[in-house]
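Thread: quick sanity check before group meeting

JM: Hey all, I'm pulling together slides for Thursday and realized we never actually wrote out the predicted structure for the chain we discussed last week. Dropping the sequence here so it's in one place. If anyone has concerns about the input, flag it before I start.
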Amino acid sequence: MSRTSQWPILVTTVVALSWSTVVPSRAMDNAVTDWHTIAVDTILTASPPRPGPVGILDIAVVQAAIYDAVQAIGGKYKAYKVEIPGASGSPEAATAKAARDVLVSIFPDKAESIDTTYRGYLTKKNLKENDPGIAVGEKAAAGIVAMHAGNIRVPNPSPDPFRGDTKPGMWRPTTSYQSGPPTLTRLWQRPGWVL
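JM (edit): ok, ran it. Output follows.
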Protein backbone atom coordinates (compact mmCIF):
# COMPACT_ATOMS: atom_id res chain seq x y z
CA MET A 1 0.00 0.00 0.00
CA SER A 2 1.48 3.32 -1.00
CA ARG A 3 1.83 6.22 1.39
CA THR A 4 -0.66 8.29 -0.57
CA SER A 5 -3.34 5.61 -0.28
CA GLN A 6 -2.81 5.42 3.51
CA TRP A 7 -3.74 9.08 4.08
CA PRO A 8 -7.53 8.61 3.73
CA ILE A 9 -7.41 5.76 6.24
CA LEU A 10 -5.36 7.80 8.70
CA VAL A 11 -7.59 10.87 8.37
CA THR A 12 -10.75 8.78 8.79
CA THR A 13 -9.34 7.10 11.89
CA VAL A 14 -8.30 10.37 13.49
CA VAL A 15 -11.69 11.94 12.80
CA ALA A 16 -13.52 8.91 14.18
CA LEU A 17 -11.43 8.84 17.34
CA SER A 18 -11.73 12.56 17.95
CA TRP A 19 -15.46 12.67 17.22
CA SER A 20 -16.32 12.35 20.92
CA THR A 21 -14.70 15.73 21.61
CA VAL A 22 -16.60 17.49 18.81
CA VAL A 23 -20.17 16.20 19.21
CA PRO A 24 -22.19 17.65 22.09
CA SER A 25 -22.89 15.19 24.90
CA ARG A 26 -26.66 15.33 24.29
CA ALA A 27 -26.16 13.83 20.83
CA MET A 28 -24.00 11.03 22.22
CA ASP A 29 -26.30 9.82 24.95
CA ASN A 30 -26.20 6.12 24.12
CA ALA A 31 -24.33 3.11 25.42
CA VAL A 32 -22.26 2.39 22.29
CA THR A 33 -20.68 5.84 22.14
CA ASP A 34 -20.34 5.96 25.94
CA TRP A 35 -18.38 2.71 25.96
CA HIS A 36 -16.41 3.72 22.89
CA THR A 37 -15.25 6.78 24.81
CA ILE A 38 -14.44 4.63 27.87
CA ALA A 39 -12.47 2.20 25.68
CA VAL A 40 -10.52 5.02 24.01
CA ASP A 41 -9.71 6.58 27.38
CA THR A 42 -8.59 3.20 28.76
CA ILE A 43 -6.37 2.53 25.75
CA LEU A 44 -4.87 6.03 25.67
CA THR A 45 -3.94 5.85 29.36
CA ALA A 46 -2.44 2.35 29.13
CA SER A 47 0.98 1.99 30.68
CA PRO A 48 3.15 1.12 28.85
CA PRO A 49 1.48 2.75 25.84
CA ARG A 50 0.16 0.43 23.16
CA PRO A 51 2.65 0.37 20.24
CA GLY A 52 1.77 1.53 16.75
CA PRO A 53 -1.75 0.78 15.55
CA VAL A 54 -2.46 -1.69 18.36
CA GLY A 55 -4.79 0.76 20.12
CA ILE A 56 -6.95 0.96 16.99
CA LEU A 57 -7.09 -2.84 16.85
CA ASP A 58 -8.07 -2.94 20.54
CA ILE A 59 -10.95 -0.55 19.84
CA ALA A 60 -12.03 -2.72 16.91
CA VAL A 61 -12.17 -5.80 19.16
CA VAL A 62 -14.28 -3.90 21.73
CA GLN A 63 -16.63 -2.66 19.01
CA ALA A 64 -16.97 -6.12 17.45
CA ALA A 65 -18.15 -7.50 20.80
CA ILE A 66 -20.54 -4.58 21.26
CA TYR A 67 -21.93 -5.08 17.75
CA ASP A 68 -22.58 -8.78 18.27
CA ALA A 69 -24.21 -8.15 21.67
CA VAL A 70 -26.55 -5.44 20.38
CA GLN A 71 -27.22 -7.31 17.16
CA ALA A 72 -28.18 -10.46 19.08
CA ILE A 73 -30.91 -8.52 20.90
CA GLY A 74 -32.04 -6.39 17.94
CA GLY A 75 -31.77 -9.12 15.32
CA LYS A 76 -31.83 -6.76 12.33
CA TYR A 77 -28.45 -7.65 10.83
CA LYS A 78 -26.05 -10.54 10.50
CA ALA A 79 -23.74 -11.14 13.47
CA TYR A 80 -20.04 -10.49 12.98
CA LYS A 81 -18.90 -13.67 14.75
CA VAL A 82 -21.03 -14.61 17.76
CA GLU A 83 -24.64 -15.63 17.23
CA ILE A 84 -26.74 -15.74 20.40
CA PRO A 85 -30.15 -17.25 19.64
CA GLY A 86 -33.06 -16.11 21.79
CA ALA A 87 -31.15 -13.12 23.16
CA SER A 88 -33.17 -10.61 25.15
CA GLY A 89 -32.65 -7.83 27.63
CA SER A 90 -31.41 -4.29 27.53
CA PRO A 91 -29.06 -3.42 24.64
CA GLU A 92 -27.41 -0.88 26.97
CA ALA A 93 -26.64 -3.59 29.54
CA ALA A 94 -25.35 -5.90 26.78
CA THR A 95 -23.14 -3.11 25.44
CA ALA A 96 -21.70 -2.29 28.85
CA LYS A 97 -20.96 -5.93 29.70
CA ALA A 98 -19.43 -6.74 26.30
CA ALA A 99 -17.15 -3.69 26.39
CA ARG A 100 -16.22 -4.28 30.04
CA ASP A 101 -15.29 -7.93 29.46
CA VAL A 102 -13.16 -7.20 26.38
CA LEU A 103 -11.36 -4.31 28.10
CA VAL A 104 -10.61 -6.49 31.14
CA SER A 105 -9.24 -9.23 28.86
CA ILE A 106 -6.93 -6.72 27.14
CA PHE A 107 -5.98 -4.83 30.32
CA PRO A 108 -6.16 -7.28 33.26
CA ASP A 109 -4.11 -4.87 35.40
CA LYS A 110 -6.87 -2.27 35.02
CA ALA A 111 -9.70 -4.66 35.94
CA GLU A 112 -10.56 -2.86 39.18
CA SER A 113 -10.82 0.53 37.48
CA ILE A 114 -12.84 -0.89 34.58
CA ASP A 115 -15.18 -2.69 37.01
CA THR A 116 -15.73 0.55 38.95
CA THR A 117 -16.61 2.33 35.70
CA TYR A 118 -18.90 -0.55 34.69
CA ARG A 119 -20.80 -0.62 38.01
CA GLY A 120 -21.09 3.18 37.97
CA TYR A 121 -22.45 3.05 34.44
CA LEU A 122 -25.10 0.46 35.34
CA THR A 123 -26.16 2.56 38.34
CA LYS A 124 -26.26 5.80 36.33
CA LYS A 125 -28.44 4.19 33.62
CA ASN A 126 -30.68 2.33 36.15
CA LEU A 127 -29.65 -1.05 34.77
CA LYS A 128 -29.83 -4.13 37.00
CA GLU A 129 -27.08 -6.75 37.39
CA ASN A 130 -29.65 -9.48 36.59
CA ASP A 131 -30.76 -7.90 33.29
CA PRO A 132 -30.71 -10.61 30.58
CA GLY A 133 -28.65 -8.25 28.42
CA ILE A 134 -25.72 -8.77 30.80
CA ALA A 135 -25.57 -12.47 29.85
CA VAL A 136 -25.82 -11.55 26.16
CA GLY A 137 -22.92 -9.11 26.45
CA GLU A 138 -20.88 -11.68 28.34
CA LYS A 139 -21.41 -14.32 25.61
CA ALA A 140 -20.60 -11.86 22.83
CA ALA A 141 -17.40 -10.72 24.55
CA ALA A 142 -16.32 -14.30 25.28
CA GLY A 143 -16.76 -15.25 21.62
CA ILE A 144 -14.86 -12.23 20.29
CA VAL A 145 -12.07 -12.60 22.86
CA ALA A 146 -11.73 -16.31 21.98
CA MET A 147 -11.60 -15.42 18.28
CA HIS A 148 -8.76 -12.97 18.90
CA ALA A 149 -6.91 -15.04 21.51
CA GLY A 150 -4.27 -16.13 18.99
CA ASN A 151 -3.65 -12.62 17.68
CA ILE A 152 -0.30 -11.25 18.68
CA ARG A 153 -0.99 -7.53 18.61
CA VAL A 154 1.89 -6.80 20.97
CA PRO A 155 4.90 -9.10 20.46
CA ASN A 156 6.30 -10.72 23.57
CA PRO A 157 9.20 -10.25 23.99
CA SER A 158 9.32 -6.89 22.29
CA PRO A 159 11.71 -6.61 19.35
CA ASP A 160 15.13 -5.12 19.96
CA PRO A 161 15.18 -1.34 19.83
CA PHE A 162 16.44 0.22 16.63
CA ARG A 163 20.20 0.62 16.66
CA GLY A 164 21.70 2.50 13.81
CA ASP A 165 21.51 5.63 11.83
CA THR A 166 18.64 6.91 9.73
CA LYS A 167 20.74 8.77 7.18
CA PRO A 168 20.41 7.61 3.57
CA GLY A 169 23.07 5.12 2.62
CA MET A 170 23.95 4.19 6.21
CA TRP A 171 24.06 0.51 7.07
CA ARG A 172 21.47 -0.61 9.58
CA PRO A 173 22.19 -3.77 11.57
CA THR A 174 19.55 -6.44 11.11
CA THR A 175 19.02 -9.96 12.31
CA SER A 176 19.96 -12.55 9.70
CA TYR A 177 17.56 -15.42 9.19
CA GLN A 178 19.90 -17.28 6.82
CA SER A 179 22.09 -20.08 8.04
CA GLY A 180 25.81 -19.63 7.53
CA PRO A 181 27.67 -17.04 5.52
CA PRO A 182 26.38 -16.11 2.05
CA THR A 183 27.77 -18.08 -0.85
CA LEU A 184 29.62 -16.05 -3.40
CA THR A 185 30.01 -17.47 -6.88
CA ARG A 186 31.11 -15.61 -9.89
CA LEU A 187 28.73 -15.69 -12.82
CA TRP A 188 31.37 -17.19 -15.10
CA GLN A 189 31.94 -20.02 -12.62
CA ARG A 190 28.34 -21.17 -12.84
CA PRO A 191 27.58 -24.06 -15.19
CA GLY A 192 26.30 -23.00 -18.58
CA TRP A 193 27.72 -19.50 -18.41
CA VAL A 194 29.60 -18.40 -21.50
CA LEU A 195 31.69 -15.26 -21.91
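AS: nice. The longest helix spans residues 54-74. Helices lie at 3-22, 31-44, 54-74, 91-106, 111-124, 132-147.
JM: adding both to the slides.
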